């Protein structure tokens, strides 16, 4: 059978988008399809699978999101930008700013005139049980990994993150590859975690590499960029508007919060691009 698919990317974080009707027509398993389509050798190759849910009643539209290993994810910032552009271009929504029901709650993307997408990512979650993070102190938490002690910050942007700031001479990609998978599955995170290794270049700019839960190394992570900026602001190291340099491109993060006013929405702005449309013979 031929399955109609669209591939998109946001800063190199790539996704296969498959309309819900295709699942209904072929009676497919979403999890199994995600693993098959996202495989970079035997499938199309992607970091995740996105399925629009046009039958959503609480918001303007909903989505199903699966990591490349077939597990579900509550939220994905780069995926949300691609999803927003896709459903707007397809006419599933008729307004540039709309609401999306996700497992992380209602998210509000806005298609901007220059083609980028600005997403209201809602409030960061700092309460350990809601991250979820087992220790009570989620900031400045020291974790021993392979005889090295990392000091990190556990934050949720609808999905869990452990943000680690490192010195300028460190190799971010090497750190992410070596220590990311160990931290992802550490006992402190009962639902596993994404792991960010971050360099502060200036109060208005950071560089980071991410080990994503369920994906491994990716070229970009929108929620990871958000969590990293929130952590930096809470540490007093960053401004409220920060340019985030990822291996696949640059996004802008804006957060008006601080140590006292944490109940503020985080905004993520960045590109969303089509790669190709095709039929996949499964």
Task: Describe the protein's topology.
Layout: E1 2-10, E2 13-17, H1 20-26, H2 30-38, E3 48-53, E4 61-67, H3 77-89, E5 100-102, E6 105-111, E7 117-120, E8 141-145, E9 148-156, E10 160-165, H4 172-184, E11 194-202, E12 205-212, E13 216-218, H5 222-234, E14 241-246, E15 249-255, E16 266-270, E17 273-281
Parallel strand pairs: 2-3, 4-5, 10-11, 12-14
Antiparallel strand pairs: 1-2, 1-17, 3-4, 5-6, 6-7, 7-16, 8-9, 9-10, 11-12, 12-13, 14-15, 15-16
Question: How would you briefly describe this protein structure?
Answer:
By secondary structure, the chain is an alpha+beta fold.
The sequence of SSEs as H and E is EEHHEEHEEEEEEHEEEHEEEE
Q: Which structural class best describes the helix and strand composition?
A: alpha+beta
Instruction: Report, as a whole number of angstroms, the end-to-end distance.
Output: 6 Å
**Main β sheet profile:** 17 strands, mixed
């Amino acid at each position: 059978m031929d399955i109609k698919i669209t591939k998109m990317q946001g800063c190199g974080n790539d996704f296969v988008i498959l309309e819900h009707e295709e699942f209904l027509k072929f009676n497919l398993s979403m999890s199994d399809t995600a693993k098959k389509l996202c495989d970079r050798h035997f499938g199309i190759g992607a970091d995740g699978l996105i399925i629009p849910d046009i039958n959503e009643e609480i918001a303007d539209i909903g989505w199903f999101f699966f990591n490349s290993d077939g597990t579900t994810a509550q939220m994905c910032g780069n995926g949300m930008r691609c999803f927003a552009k896709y459903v707007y271009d397809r006419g599933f929504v008729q307004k540039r700013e709309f609401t999306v029901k996700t497992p992380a709650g209602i998210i509000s993307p806005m298609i901007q005139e220059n083609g980028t997408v600005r997403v209201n990512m809602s409030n960061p979650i700092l309460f350990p049980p809601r991250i979820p993070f087992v220790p009570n102190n989620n900031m400045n938490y020291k974790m021993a990994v392979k005889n090295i002690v990392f000091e990190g910050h556990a934050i949720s942007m609808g999905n869990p993150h452990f943000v680690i700031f490192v010195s300028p001479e460190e190799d971010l990609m090497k750190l992410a590859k070596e220590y990311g998978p160990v931290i992802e599955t550490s006992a402190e995170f009962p639902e596993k975690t994404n792991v960010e290794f971050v360099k502060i270049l200036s109060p208005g700019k950071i560089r980071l590499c991410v080990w994503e839960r369920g994906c491994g190394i990716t070229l970009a992570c929108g929620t990871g960029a958000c969590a990293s900026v929130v952590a930096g602001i809470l540490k007093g190291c960053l401004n409220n508007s920060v340019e985030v340099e990822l291996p696949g491109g640059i996004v802008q993060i804006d957060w008006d919060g601080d140590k006292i006013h944490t109940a503020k929405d985080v905004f993520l702005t960045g590109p969303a691009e089509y790669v190709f449309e095709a039929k996949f013979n499964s």
